[in-house]
Amino acid sequence: MRKFYILVLFLLSISSIYHLVDASLHVKYLPGFEGPLPFQLETGYVSVGESGDVEFFYFFVKSERNPKTDPLMIWLTGGPGCSSICGLLFANGPLGFKGDEYNGTVPPLELTSFSWTKWFVYHPEFLSNPFYVGGDSYSGKVVPGVVQQISFGNEKGLTPLINIKGYVLGNPVTYPNSESNHEVSFAHRMGLISDELFGSLVRSCGGKFFDVDPSNEKCSNDLQTYDQCISEINARQILLPICKDDYVLPSIRQTITNIITGRRRELKEFSGNDSSSLPPPSCFTYKYFLSAFWANNENVRRALGVKKGFEKWSRCNIQNIPYTYDIHNAIPYHVNNSLKGFRSLIYSGDHDMVIPLSSTEAWIRSLNYSIVDDWRPWMMSSNQVAGYTRTYANKMTFATIKGGGHSAEYNPDQCSLVFKRWIDGEPL
Hints:
- By secondary structure, the protein is of the alpha/beta class.
- It has twelve helices and 16 strands.
- It folds into two domains: 268 residues, Rossmann fold (3-Layer(aba) Sandwich); 85 residues, no CATH class.
């Protein structure tokens, strides 16, 4: 049986092998939200591949500003294997969970203040609109390749021609072989390990902290001490407490090592039907559990037009996806896309230890493009510093999100603002 995945804002087909397989459904009401939806939501299925035997479930949210001229965007959540409903309900969509304590009914929804849908549109009549690809985390591997493939398709004359203009990435996985070594230096910069331990790690491990030679006893011992120092740190946002998650990953270093080597991650997933195992509502991860109750509710699935027979939805499904790790380094894709003249926005939460901002800065510097707007703070409308930014000659803008974590959901208002300014061509 095919898995049930949700792709949010899958706006249009990018080559002739993608097909809308069912008539779309215009959703006017959703369980958990009081009254009619104040925006236009459409759902349906897209078949992928020559045989069409794989289907993706999509959401379309129409622009709330000016659909005739606003850009279109496809948003792809990372993982690999995590559902893009995370973007719709946690980070950049018009709806989010209220966060009330679960009472056994459908978790309630509310309108968000940070919605990116003041921009999102769909339908063939919008093919001339500027088109962007966006994503976060592991999508840093996928998005640059998708942009490149769209460009190749346009050059080959594949239809429909897509007016691709650029891409957006948050805390992107780009080159794990190099990025993995920045975790230790980030921990040092943030005061999570001592100067003495950091110095010893650099000397004993030679600056390489992953896939260490087992015979290097001093390095192994230092890494064991390091692991003890950070074992109770929430790597996705180091200021937040560790709360029970809906699935449990191995250690951060082991996770990156698995990505490098192509090994599957061993996950313990939340079943989505046991309210007794929920963390308290004050936990940041509480909404993850709510999403499982919501997405697996039969009334919700019926309202969204989900086909019968699909198995239980889970937020991340990594174990059972036949995923091939064939992009080990996304930097060449960034180079090719820059040569094509595509714009890009790369943003990093400055309290994310999974993909530290220093690792992102490093691969951007390796592109060796000149700086046209040097490092400076960018401000919220309240004249408060929201982060820092730098712009390069290859039309790439890098921005940090002050107090941000591994994805836009940790600071959605700041991420929404940086996106809106960038997409409109305004300075941050």
